[in-house]
Amino acid sequence: MSSSKTAKLGHWTAYMPILALVALGVAAFLPNAAALTLCAAALAGAVFSAVHHAETVAHKVGEPFGTLVLAVAVTIIEVALIVSVMLSGGPDKAGLARDTVFAAIMIVSTGIVGLCLLFGGVRHHTQGFHVEGASAALAVLCALSVLTLVLPNYTNSVVGPGLTASQLAFEGVISLVLYMVFVFVQTVSHRDYFLAKAPSEEVHVPPPSRRTAVLSLGLLVVALVAVVGLAKKLSPAVEQAVATAGAPKAVVGIVIAALVLLPEGLAALRAARANKLQTSLNLALGSALASIGLTIPTVAAVSLVLDQQIELGLAPKETVLLAITLLVSVLTLGTGRTTVLQGAVHLVLFAAFLFLAIVP
């Protein structure tokens, strides 16, 4: 990215997050159609602004800290949204955390990763990355996803997809501990596993100043808050459209999760096109791990403190989709080299996930 392009983008991205929050407030006083149009436009601006500020922060702190900033920031705000809906939704929202985490895993592992591998393969034919880093992330993802989303269906203390208080506490603790160990490995003990392997084709740009990086970090948080708020504002219209189309309610969660994950998805895709597949995988797999490692402990704590029932076990169809996604991810990312073929395989799984969500 040239310095002139950075300056041009920085001009409008500096105030777009604030404008997105203002648009969110103004939309409350507008007619429904006008409010939806304003929120949709503000959401697009907030997403692109978040991507720019995330890249600025990443350029300053370096990898893999930069990708970790965006993944954790998005997940923390997503968790806040889940908890707020849980507290206001009552018993019918018992499966919200499960559905959101599952949708995030599938969107990231099949959709975002698939697009990155496909577009990167089309442009660069073959791309390389550190297989040690990808294998470490996939090992943690397999363990966390199965322990939190599949195992609850097979415990004997509670009938169905629920857990006892002690089992739920155990799930929350091991999820957080395993995620924190992964972050330690990624950023401290084996940081070299997550550094870019192939050189970037972009023109070298000096890192931004500390003041610019701090400002971008603050604007990134504001932009992500705006993305979540606007997504929540648009959700009733999405629910109505889904109901009108006769699609299952689970589609609503997929749409909202996709909106929240847009900043990470765009940042990962841009990195893949710039021949930085390692950065793309750090973003994608890191966000999937953060979704489990931060969401499950938080909702477990809320459930235990407020004595609110939650359901974590997936239905059989979703369990099969999760299993084949994890298996294929281990195979396609197990050599350290990717082509368009791996991208096509992941995107076929993503298409199956979307199709079976609409036509169960």
UniProtKB/TrEMBL annotation:
- Output a single Gene Ontology CC term carried by this record: plasma membrane
Molecular function GO terms recorded: potassium:proton antiporter activity; sodium:proton antiporter activity
Q: Which is one Pfam family of this protein?
A: Na_Ca_ex
Taxonomically, which superkingdom?
Answer: Bacteria
Residues covered by the Sodium/calcium exchanger membrane region domain: 34-187, 216-358
Magnesium keyword on record:
no
Parts of the chain that traverse the membrane: 12-29, 35-53, 65-89, 101-122, 134-154, 166-185, 213-231, 251-269, 281-306, 312-333, 340-359
Write down the InterPro entries for this protein, in alphabetical order.
Answer: Alkaline_pH_Ca-Antiporter, NaCa_Exmemb
Localisation: Membrane
The way this protein sits in the membrane is described as:
Multi-pass membrane protein
Keyword field: Membrane, Transmembrane, Transmembrane helix
Q: Which PANTHER family match?
A: SODIUM-POTASSIUM/PROTON ANTIPORTER CHAA, SODIUM-POTASSIUM_PROTON ANTIPORTER CHAA
The protein's name in its UniProt record:
Ionic transporter y4hA
Source organism? Pandoraea oxalativorans
